[in-house]
Every structure is written in structure tokens, then in C-alpha cells.
Amino acid sequence: MKKISVTKYDGTREAYSQEKLVHSILRSGVKHDEVIPLLTKIESRLYEGIPTSEIYQMVHGTINEAGFQQSSRFYRIREAMAKMGSIQFEQFVAKILDKEGFSCQWNVIVPGFCIEHQIDVIAKNENGESFYIEVKHHRNPHRLGGLGIVAEIWARLEDLKHGYETGKNKYDFTSAWLICNTKFSDHAKQYSTCKNLMLTGWQYAFDTKGQRINEGLEARLDLLDRDEVDKLLQKVIV
Questions:
Q1: Looking at the structure, do residues 90 and 197 belong to the same domain, yes or no?
Q2: What pLDDT score was predicted for residue 213?
Q3: What are phi and psi of 99, to 5 degrees?
Q4: Phi and psi for 143 in degrees, rounded to 5?
Q5: Overall number of domains in the chain
Q6: Domain for residue 72, yes or no?
Q7: Could you give the CA distance from residue 205 to residue 61 in angstroms, rounded to a whole number?
């Protein structure tokens, strides 16, 4: 097809990438030999400057129309998480971490050196490492987690660490961890990599042991029982 640009959530434009669209279809669970018909149908409807959110809806709708209900769940889960309330999403994240083997505390007030901090989740792994977790929920599933929030988390982590060193709190945090239901901006990823902050979002994760691309929050849902995921999907307004 002819070259076009797409409009991202922040208003910037970039060249349309067929590779990204193919990956998105495959990531939903559609098999390789079933991609081409879906791709052809979607690309026939693209136009110059089309919003990426509209492409997302096209992919979801086309997969669903083709009868791939299981694959369609991948997209419906993203919408369903966006419809959750912030507190509900925090508890949902804590449940996922609990399934991973973390011991979690939810909504804890911890003194830093300068001020007190309300922490969404404190998670401790089997090695005794503790993580300060900021859970960020966006109602718009296409909104990016930006540089501002990760810079704020880094500042809060520094104050919490100083508070531990001076005996004001009992938490010797290994790192801070931002868990979000959406994707992250490039600057947020770059800053987090530099500061060794952990990120988990939609189709992206970075931890203290190295970067993991295209395996984010959606992959962790496999830890939950199918009934739990189905309850989440019931929140989608058809």
C-alpha cells in the first residue's frame, strides 16, 4: 500500500508500520497463516493521519468479525482494564503480584526523610527484596505513561531510601516499580532504564535484570484463573 503517516495519542505523527500491525495481530493470538486476510482488510481502510486508537479498534473489530473470539479477548482485556476504577486496578495488580509469589501490602503510609508517602503497593519477593510500587491507571487505554511520573517516582524512592538510612522507616527498598495499564513514552523508558526503575505496562516490561520487550501486563494475566479474567471482561461495554 502507499506510504501514509499515523497520528499517535500525543498528537505526533509517524510513518505507518506494517510490521507493527502484523505484530499486533499476531500478539492477539491469531496464527501466522491467518494474518494476511486480516491485514489486507485493515489496510484497505487506512487513511493519511489515521489515529492509532482507530487502528486499534479496527484490529479488534476485524479479528472479532473473522470469528477469532479468543484472539479478540486480548483487545477486550485492554479495554476492560481501562474501565476499572483506580482503587480496583491497584487491588487487581496486587492480586497478580500475589500469584507471582510476592507478599504484598496495599495502600501503606511510609515516612521518607522529608515527607510521608502513600504507597499503592509494597511487594516483597522470596529473596527478601522489597519494592515500592506505584500503580498508575488511565481511563484512556491509548494514553502513554510519561516522563513526569517516572521522574516523580525516582524522587520519591530517593526520599524513602534516605528515610530508611536515617531510621525513619523500616523499608529497605531494592527499587521502585511503575505498573500501568497502558504503554510508556520513549522518554519514560529511557529515563527508567538509566535509573534502573522497573516498568510494567501494556506489551512492555523492564526489570532490574534487563529489558523485556512485548511481554508486559497482559502476559501476567495468564497467572489468573480464567474465571477472574472473564469477570474483568464483563466490564466491557459492547
A1: yes
A2: 59
A3: -65, -30
A4: -75, 140
A5: 2
A6: no
A7: 27
SS (H, E, C) 16-77: CCHHHHHHHHHHCCCCHHHHHHHHHHHHCCCCCCEEHHHHHHHHHHHHHHCCCHHHHHHHHH
Helix, strand, or coil here: 117?
strand
d(CA 199, CA 183): 10
- Nearest to residue 216, comparing CAs of 230, 200, 197, 231? 200
131-157 pLDDT per residue, tens = 999 999 999 888 899 999 999 999 999
The residue type of 206 is F
Same domain, 49 and 167: no
The answer to whether residues 59 and 105 belong to one domain is no
- Residue 47 in this model has a pLDDT that exceeds 90: yes
pTM of this structure: 0.74
Lowest mean pLDDT among 14-28, 36-50, 87-101, 112-126: 14-28
Question: Considering just the CA atoms, what is the radius of gyration of the chain in Å?
Answer: 19
What domain range includes position 135?
A: 85-233
List residues bridging with 47 in a β-sheet. Answer: none
State whether 37 and 145 are in the same domain.
no
